[in-house]
Amino acid sequence: MGYFRPGDVALRREVLHGKPWAVTPTRVVEDGPDLLVVFTVPGVRFGFPPHHWPHGWQVAGNAHWRGHGKLQMHRPGDAYSVDLYWTGPDRRFHGWYLNLQDPFRRTPLGFDTLDHELDYWVPAEGGWVEKDRDEFEEQVAAGKYSAAQAEAIRATGKEVEAMLTAGTTWWDQAWASWEPDPDWPVPVLPDGWADYPVP
């Protein structure tokens, strides 16, 4: 399976319990053997296939992305993405969000993953905080993640904490100044998006 070109649409699909759970069309910024970077364009609409586990965004009525959009950086094998956020009318860089998730798996239309709820916020002014630990443990108890998955997610959290504490982050700080191509249209879900199989 080849790499995407800048500007291509890649479907970021979350797969829960073997079934598609949520789908977001993204624009590819960079793709290669060491890094996949995609952008969630402001206003893009999410897809929520029928699923026995309701998605939190769907329950809350969040049908599309608000704000300035977000940039997501993925390294092969990493059980997290590094997401960048901007804020305010001047699109000021807000910080880095380490989103724990399944290592991405390529598909013909994009890539599959699964959000793990547990996250880490690294504000632009420095420091870091853990987020959503209680929600994560509640979802483990409710059966969203198996005991083995939960243990692996906790282990990833410890690795991320050690990296942040030591200041040995791997990503280029210059990404904070990145700006999307103003000519990119908002991507849309293609026909049959809910039907393509889980590899």
From TrEMBL:
Keywords: Hydrolase. The keyword Kinase does not apply. Gene3D superfamilies: FomD-like. Signal peptide: none annotated. Pfam families: DUF402. InterPro entries: DUF402 (IPR007295), FomD-like_sf (IPR035930), Ntdp-like (IPR050212). Residues 52-167 form the DUF402 domain. SUPFAM superfamilies: FomD-like (SSF159234). This is DUF402 domain-containing protein. It comes from Saccharothrix hoggarensis.
